Amino acid sequence: MSVLDKIKALRDKFPRAEQQLAEYILANPDHIRDMPSQMLAKAVGISQASVVRFTQKLGYKGYPDFKFAISDSLHHQAPAVSSDKLHGEISLDDTFSTMSQKLLASKINVLQKTHAINSQTSFEQAALLLRNAKRVLLCGKGGSALVAKDFSYKLQKLGTAALAETDTHVQLANIANYTVEDVLVVISESGETPDSVKITEQGAANGVNIISITAYGANSVARLASLNLYTVADESSARLSSILARNAQELVIDTLFILLTQTCPQGRKKLAASNKAVDTFLARKR
User: Fold this and answer.
1) For residue 260, which phi and psi values (nearest 5 degrees)?
2) DSSP labels for 157-197?
3) What is the pLDDT of residues 171-206, one digit of tens each?
4) What is the largest CA-CA distance in the chain?
5) pLDDT 10s digits, 207-230
């Protein structure tokens, strides 16, 4: 994940002074490559020590490493989709054409950001955990529960014993008997939904391998997880339900499903058998 993607994902969670620094960096990444830390601090109106601490918070040893990461990020940066109007700005007065264009632009924006923020290594490690799991329990509340159920169906087609339950009591009853041989997948945009946190805590206490799918940054679910995958959704979209959050989550689970299909010959055989059974049933009904 590039440093610019990290900053974009975290900027609303930074303290005010660091938010100003983040905004300056995102607006002037080309200049940062040639700016000493003292100059950057003066431009933003903060101390040099604050600049160094900011870079360390992002996971770099110091400012020189941070500048190198900025250069690398700019070198690999993909062209952005041109759109100033995001999903949360849709109004009741918009025409159908305007509304649909805004919605399409925001969906593309969210998918691109979610794709950029997750590494290939993280996906491959998550796929390995799922491929070797004896059982998989998927946990999500609200809109995330729909994504969890969808993923459970996909995993079942690959022959995985996957269960997605919305009732917290049932989830707790199941996870209480899970072990290191099993996997818990927790899908939560905030990573702070009380029920999801409780399930994650129980899974961690049992030594269960936990894959979290949450917004980027520190949150209770991600801290307890063995492996983190991230989603990016415009927070203002909450005004028109969790459409964008689900889009981002679905990209993550679909990527995992396809990766599992590509890397597991036995899974492909079971997927083919599942599809054949459905096709045979439908043919008989015609």
Assistant:
1) -65, -40
2) HTT--EEE---HHHHHHHHTT--TTSEEEEE-SSS--HHHH
3) 999 999 999 999 999 999 999 999 999 999 999 999
4) 75
5) 999 999 999 888 999 999 999 999
